[in-house]
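Following up on my earlier message about iron/sulfur cluster. Here are the inputs again, as you asked, copied directly from the submission form:
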Amino acid sequence: MNIRISAGSAARMGLMHLKSDAPADTAYLLHGASCSMNCSFCPQAREAAGLNGRLGRVSWPSFSREAMLKGLQQAREQGMRRICLQAVREMGGPGGLPELVKQVSSVGLPVSVSSLVRSPGEVEALFEAGAERVSLALDVVNPRLFARYKGGDFMERLNLLLHCARCWPGRMVTHIICGLGETEQELLSCAALLVQEQVTVALFAFTPLKGTALQGHPPPDGAVYRRMQAALFLLRKGAVSLAEMKFNEGRLVSFGLEKGQLRQQLQGGAAFQTSGCPGCNRPYYNERPGGFIYNYPRPLTEEEIEKALEPVLSCC
Ligand code: SF4
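Thanks, got it. Here's what our run produced:
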């Protein structure tokens, strides 16, 4: 069975030509032909129209397994840092996913697997097959919106994630999407709990995509996103706790640090780079080339750092 590879990764693997000012540091692979789930924001959803070759803003051409393995070897030799294997949930469960994990692990790069696992047993099978990390994406942090946009029970998913995090400390990952109608307090409360449980939190900006149920929903405000990135970074660093942050009607109004301290903690701009597994930079996953950059796939320039800090420093 063929495998889909994000266009940016495929270019880095020597499988196609694509000009990019931000090369992918991770090889993003997509397993599975059609998803049985129906997430309102996802172009792979059962009822999404017309954009099945996409995930996020990215297109995913298809390649043979042999070409993929050869490309991964080549990319590893040229500094690729990780493989991220994302699997849509096909009818009947994870199918040949553990076998594929075994195959890509043989390349010798750390492998993250992102799949709609339903039990600790499924997670264990992925670790046994060679995954370094497993992602169980929450995506939506507000329970009511979770039911509406993803279907199912938020607490059930969260509890499964927390259970796995305790079984495999430091090896579970989750994705959180900012901009789906949750409050800043909800997002950061959830992130703080996960950070405390050693779950790696990857923050995404909601991206309206044509053909999805949420194609008309706006992306998050840039200033809000910068504050969420900064707060998540500070929580991860242990520079501040959720209890020290202040909220007003769900909006973050203080990070719990003096302006000078805040600037010092955020110097270098790493807070505004893509978050998630080490080496995951997801170029243009949420961004249009030339548009607002939610997650920088590379270190920021001094000018970009100052600009990114503005809405953060004006909050305290
Ligand atoms: S954080 Fe990046 S590498 Fe890790 S599972 Fe998510 S998309 Fe993959």
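One observation from looking it over: The two ends are 53 Å apart (CA to CA). Hope that helps, and feel free to reply on this thread.
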